């Protein structure tokens, strides 16, 4: 049988046999249940997503070709793997994740039966999986794991935080990632200080007028 799902499954299985050096494989795997989750999971939506956190704040790059990794030291890869429409692809993605060099997976899904994060976590175990409920109504199905089947999760739509959490896991082994996380938080801190001073020293009307 030759179709796009089978081709992806074969690719992942083949990649798992390559035994590539860690520098050449993605560190983080991002999967989502549908391309309709893309803005929430990655970039361009109402709030910033995992892509924005990784690329803009932490200096990661998206790896799109296993044969030609980006120059950046830390990378992530991105796939759509639907729990209900492509359970075979979801399964092989999670089964091969560790052998393919991933250190952590971020899995997001929407709807009331948002099963991709928890099924990916069960299959990829003991690899850590960070679940992202793409919608408010997905929260219960993402976080409702039974005792003994762990999944850490962020609040609905907070894929940006999922990326930071994934980086925190990587930072236990990689000082460079730790330094980038610390620098990001220092920027946040500085931002609060700058607006606080501007608000106080200029007064409320001037502060409100600054972007008009
Ligand atoms: C959409 O369908 C959701 O955003 C979800 O991520 C996606 C995939 O659902 P299944 O195909 O796994 O049922 O509604």
Automatic annotation (TrEMBL):
Occurrences of domain PurE (ranges): 26-192
Pathway connected to this protein: Purine metabolism; IMP biosynthesis via de novo pathway; 5-amino-1-(5-phospho-D-ribosyl)imidazole-4-carboxylate from 5-amino-1-(5-phospho-D-ribosyl)imidazole (N5-CAIR route): step 2/2
Q: Where is this region: Disordered?
A: 1-35
Q: Which InterPro entries match?
A: PurE_ClassI, PurE_dom, PurE_prokaryotes
Under Pfam families, the record lists:
AIRC (PF00731)
Q: Which domain of life is it from?
A: Archaea
Binding site residues for substrate: 34, 37, 85
Q: What is its EC number?
A: 5.4.99.18
Molecular function in Gene Ontology:
5-(carboxyamino)imidazole ribonucleotide mutase activity
User: What keywords are annotated for this sequence in UniProt?
Assistant: Isomerase, Purine biosynthesis
Which biological processes are named by the entry's GO terms?
A: 'de novo' IMP biosynthetic process
Q: Where is the composition biased (Basic and acidic residues)?
A: 8-23
Catalytic activity line of the entry = 5-carboxyamino-1-(5-phospho-D-ribosyl)imidazole + H(+) = 5-amino-1-(5-phospho-D-ribosyl)imidazole-4-carboxylate
Statement: the UniProt record of this protein carries the keyword Heme: no
Known function:
Catalyzes the conversion of N5-carboxyaminoimidazole ribonucleotide (N5-CAIR) to 4-carboxy-5-aminoimidazole ribonucleotide (CAIR).
Q: Which family does it belong to?
A: Belongs to the AIR carboxylase family. Class I subfamily.
Note the HAMAP family from the entry: PurE_classI (MF_01929)
PANTHER family in the record, alphabetically? PHOSPHORIBOSYLAMINOIMIDAZOLE CARBOXYLASE, PHOSPHORIBOSYLAMINOIMIDAZOLE CARBOXYLASE CATALYTIC SUBUNIT
What this protein is called in its record is N5-carboxyaminoimidazole ribonucleotide mutase
| Lineage of source species | Archaea, Methanobacteriati, Methanobacteriota, Stenosarchaea group, Halobacteria
């Amino acid at each position: 049988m030759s179709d796009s799902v089978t081709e992806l499954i074969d690719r992942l299985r083949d990649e798992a046999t390559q035994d590539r050096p860690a520098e050449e494989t993605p560190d983080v795997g991002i999967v989502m249940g549908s391309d309709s989750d893309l803005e929430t999971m990655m970039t361009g939506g109402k709030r910033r997503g995992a892509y924005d956190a990784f690329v803009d704040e932490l200096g990661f790059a998206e790896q799109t070709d296993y044969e030609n990794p980006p120059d950046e030291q830390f990378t992530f890869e991105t796939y759509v793997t639907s729990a209900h429409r492509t359970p075979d692809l979801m399964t092989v993605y999670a089964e091969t994740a560790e052998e393919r060099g991933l250190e952590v997976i971020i899995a997001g899904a929407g709807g009331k039966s948002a099963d991709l994060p928890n099924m990916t976590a069960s299959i990829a175990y003991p690899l850590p999986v960070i679940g992202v409920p793409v919608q408010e109504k997905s929260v219960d199905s993402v976080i409702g794991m039974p005792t003994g089947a762990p999944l850490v999760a962020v609040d609905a739509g907070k894929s940006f935080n999922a990326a930071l959490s994934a980086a925190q896991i990587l930072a236990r082994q990689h000082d460079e990632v730790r330094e980038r996380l610390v620098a990001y938080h220092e920027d946040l801190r500085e931002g609060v200080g700058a607006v606080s001073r501007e608000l106080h020293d200029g007064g409320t009307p001037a502060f409100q007028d600054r972007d008009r």
